[in-house]
Amino acid sequence: MDIRKIGEDTVKKAVKAGAHEAEVCLETVKSFNVGVRNGEVESLKTSTAKGLGLRVFIDKQYAFSYTSDLSAAAIEDAVKRTVDMARMTEAKPWHGLPDFGPQKPPDLDIFDPGMEAVPDEKKIAIAREVEKIALASDERITNSYGGSFSNGMREGGIFNSKGVSCLLKETSCAFSVSVIAGEGAGMQGGGWSSAKRYFKDLAPVEEVARTAVERTTAMLGARPTATARVPVVFDRYAAPSFWAGILSALNGDAAFRKTTFMAEMLDQPIASPLITVVDDPTIPRHIAATPFDGEGGAVRKNTVIDKGVLKMFFYDSQTARKAGVQTPTIARRGGYKSGPFAGYLNIIVANGASRPEDLFKDMKQGLWVHGMRGTGTDATTGSFSVGVSGFWIEDGKPVHPVDGVTLGGTTRDILNAIDMVADDLDMRGGLSSPSFRVAEITVGGKKG
């Protein structure tokens, strides 16, 4: 299938049918997923999906539709239907395509040409092997939620009447295992995974199995602590959940409507000067790398928070136009069935200057958070409340695992109370952070 030809021809057809501006998002996706439990294949699915999404604008009137039928007749019907719908909608002054034209996306090496040659039997074997190793490596492991392997290949592009014509070809693969330690009321569950663009870059099966077991068995015997106000360290693998809550409050349209507690904070300090956050989808071969965003704009590195100062909200072209702001836009897209929307692509919280062990040195008592049941932040009010698990710290060392406790306070107070940031960043996904310490947070646990 000639994706570029179909995309560009569809744009031309939409303009000929009466659209003043038109945009096509086109993609084909091949995927493989297997789930194994106790050595037996529980689920196995291969799929191929394809489709086309069409946005049209007529005098600031807007309509969107999509189709999974890419035959010439179906595309002709989608074009006519979408143009007709646009004529019936209410015009909005911010409607329209992005203001930019053709750009040159970077080459980010996100397609593994050898992925298709990996036999399905090998993928199933990996899912079996990672579970087998995990189950056999520690007698305290009593059961399994299962092992899994998945991979996908996506080809697609974004094309519009301003000359944007971007092609994408990417692969991804991942495997994981989740296990159960202990018995009865004392059981603990946990897991680990590896996700990469290239099959050969995946972590060793033994490493993933060992990490899953270590993280799960470490939580055996977890119990609540007494309510206290103490220093709290967020482990680098729990920290992304915390930052996801902060980022949810940085939506540009919410700032325009003043429905986020961060609305008036642009160019103001919102966090400790130790905190710098960037959105950088330009890292070659990274699992969250992408050459262009959901509107076809070539990606770039953007600074979101600079030494504690908020430098930008997240806008796509239409929400930026609506708010009347001149700012770099970042658009996401949920495939051909979705129009573009504002959001981040690959968030990285910058490393600090402290060694991870330094975060605990002067802690008489405190909490080391390893897991969060949510993000904690209410984007509208700025209140913070979340259930967590981890380890209780005394005299700088973990003394027992902790569960059944809640962190509470306000997000702004917590951000400003960050007093140490470690240098242990591990960029595993699309939101990565080093470990960091907050000087004090209220830990709600058992009474007394």
- The succession of helices and strands, N to C, reads HEEEHHEEEHEHHEEEHEEEEEEHEEE
Average pLDDT level:
97
CA distance, first residue to last residue: 68 Å
Q: What fraction of the residues are assigned to beta strands by DSSP?
A: 35-45%
Count of strand segments:
19
The major sheet is characterized as:
6 strands, antiparallel
Q: What count of helical segments does DSSP give?
A: 8
Topology:
Blueprint: H1 3-16, E1 21-37, E2 40-58, E3 61-67, H2 72-88, H3 120-136, E4 141-160, E5 165-181, E6 188-196, H4 205-217, E7 228-234, H5 239-248, H6 252-257, E8 277-279, E9 302-306, E10 309-310, H7 317-323, E11 331-332, E12 341-342, E13 347-349, E14 365-372, E15 383-394, E16 397-410, H8 411-416, E17 418-421, E18 431-432, E19 436-444
Parallel strand pairs: 7-14, 13-18
Antiparallel strand pairs: 1-2, 1-4, 2-3, 4-5, 5-6, 7-19, 8-9, 8-13, 9-10, 11-12, 14-15, 15-16, 16-19, 17-19
Helix pairs in contact: 3-4
What is this structure, in a nutshell?
The chain has helices spanning 3-16, 72-88, 120-136, 205-217, 239-248, 252-257, 317-323, 411-416, and strands at 21-37, 40-58, 61-67, 141-160, 165-181, 188-196, 228-234, 277-279, 302-306, 309-310, 331-332, 341-342, 347-349, 365-372, 383-394, 397-410, 418-421, 431-432, 436-444.
